[in-house]
Amino acid sequence: MTVHVKALYGFSADLEPFVQLSPVEQVALLRSWGNTAIFGGYQNPEFSAAAHAAGMKVYAEIPCFMGADWWQKVPASRPITAAGQPLANDDWYYGVNPSVPQVRRELLAALEQLLTDTPLDGVWLDFIRWPCRWERPAPDLPLTSFDPDTLARFSRDTGIEIPQADIPAMAHQILVEQEAAWTAWRCQQITSWVAEARTILERVRPQAVLGLFGLPWRLSDHNGAILKIIGQDYRALARYVDIFSPMVYHQICGQPPEWIGAVTEEVRLLTGKPVWPIIQSVDIPAPLSAEAYAQALDAVLNSPAADGLLVFNLKGVLSEAKLAVTQARFL
What we know:
The protein folds into two domains: 1-55 and 246-331, no CATH class; 63-241, Glycosidases (TIM Barrel). The protein is 41% helix and 11% strand. It has helices at residues 23-32, 45-53, 68-73, 101-117, 148-158, 167-177, 179-204, 225-230, 234-237, 258-271, 290-301, 320-330, and strands at 5-9, 37-39, 57-63, 122-126, 209-214, 243-246, 278-280, 308-312. Strands 2-3-4-5-6 form a five-stranded parallel β-sheet. Strands 1-8-7 form a three-stranded parallel β-sheet, covered by helices on one side. The protein is globular and about 65 Å long.
């Protein structure tokens, strides 16, 4: 399979190479590095027009179930753990309960506004999951959300009655006696929201594609956490998503480069849809050498399951060495 889309994610006109350039010149510079698509810049109509004139697609991403603002605005959006405690933030990450009706409605409205206002060729859903700060080799895997409102929604949708008790006791009963139903219901909360997003896209901008930034976990990883903790069922989501982009940040996750290909192949197998993995160029949690970056690029370019290649992020490849590696493989 040929990797026909190559894009450095995170274009910003504020990045040093682009500050003094016109939109046409910005696009030309991106093209000179081998980009065939752009994530970002769509807020400027002149930039989008220049990109389209150059034959490049313009994509956006929309963050879904995360953010401190939600905790302030909709207190019920803060998940409750199996211990009965509000979920703590993890540095910049504030996980949000994706079953809360107000959050779901407002995110769909934001997506519709984005698609209405901008000439996008596609939009990628990000943070489209139940809470987890996954970007580390051994992530915490919080069991959420056991608040009364969420449990009532679960009971209503499944017909499973939960005897009233304190939260730890109810959580224990669910996880011991109803784990399969609980997992399926939580996955459905994600899938059903994506289905609604798909309906909006087809009505407002039917020529656009719907992408999804997914976790780079296989079904067997972390004891099935991609279903039990995250709620991303790739098999069900494939009905509504056009392109899957697993976030295969190998150094962040403490994995070797060949892991990138293994994850890509499983996502392709589960979904039957195009897979555009997104690899890391950023120096997290330690400096990423140009050689290590090249190995990650090659893992995607050599994968028979990959149709595209995204890099997180553009800023991370602006060093002379990494930019040279990028051009050698993009052009």
